[in-house]
Amino acid sequence: MPGQVGPARRFVSSQSWRRGIWPAAVALVIGAAACSGAGAGSTAARITSTSTTASTTTTTDAASLPCDGPTAVAAAVRVSPVAGLDQNPTVYQVENVSTAASDATWGRFDTLPEPGQEGTYQGGSGLVHCAGGVWTVTDFGTAEVGCPGGAAAPPPPAVAADLGIDCP
C-alpha cells in the first residue's frame, strides 16, 4: 500500500502535515501564549473581583491601585506598632481585606489566629489608610474599631458605610 512503512506505520506526507498537523500545532502555541497573558513575566499582583449582581469579572493591576491595592495590606499590618501587631506577626493571619468603594485609600482587615495559636491569640479587626504610597494601620481592636471617640480619628462617613463600620 502506498505511503505505508512497516506493518503498523503510516507515512505522513508533507501535504498532510501542512493541512492538518502544522495548523494544529500553530493554534496550540498561539492558544498557550494567549492563556499566559501579556504580563506573564510581570511580578505585579493582580486583583480579581466578581460582582454577585452581574456576571462580569474585572481584573485590575495592583500597581494601578493606591499603595498597590489590598494585596499589600498584610505586610503593613505585620509591621504596625498599633496594638502591638508587630510584636508577634507569626501568630496571626491577615484575612478579609477590602477597600472602600467610595475611597480606595481606606480599607479594613481581620486578623485570625494561625492554626494552633487559638489559645494565645484572640484576633481582631482593623482599619488601614493609604497615604504617601504606604498603607498604615489607623485602628485595631475587637470592638468599636473606626468609631468616634477612639484613639484614632474615624474614616469619613461614606468610607465607614462602605467598610461596614457600625458604631453605637
Describe the structure.
The protein has 168 residues and is an alpha+beta fold. It has a domain at 63-162. Helices cover 21% and strands 27% of the residues. The protein contains 3 helices and 8 strands, in the order ββαββαββββα. Strands 5-6-7-8 form a 4-stranded antiparallel β-sheet. The chain has a two-stranded antiparallel ribbon with strand order 1-2. Strands 3-4 form a two-stranded antiparallel sheet. Mean pLDDT is 74; it is low at 3-60.
Query: SSE order, as H and E?
Result: EEHEEHEEEEH
Task: Order the strands across the largest sheet as they lie in space.
Answer: 5-6-7-8
Number of E-type strands: 8
User: Helix fraction?
Assistant: 10-25%
Q: What does the largest sheet look like?
A: 4 strands, antiparallel
Q: Round the Cα radius of gyration to an integer and report it.
A: 26 Å
Distance between the termini: 90 Å
Approximate shape: globular
Strand proportion:
25-35%
What is the number of helical segments per DSSP (H or I, 4+ residues)?
3
Structural classification: alpha+beta
Q: On the 0-100 scale, what is the average pLDDT?
A: 74
Poorly predicted regions = 3-60
Q: How would you classify the quaternary structure? A: single chain
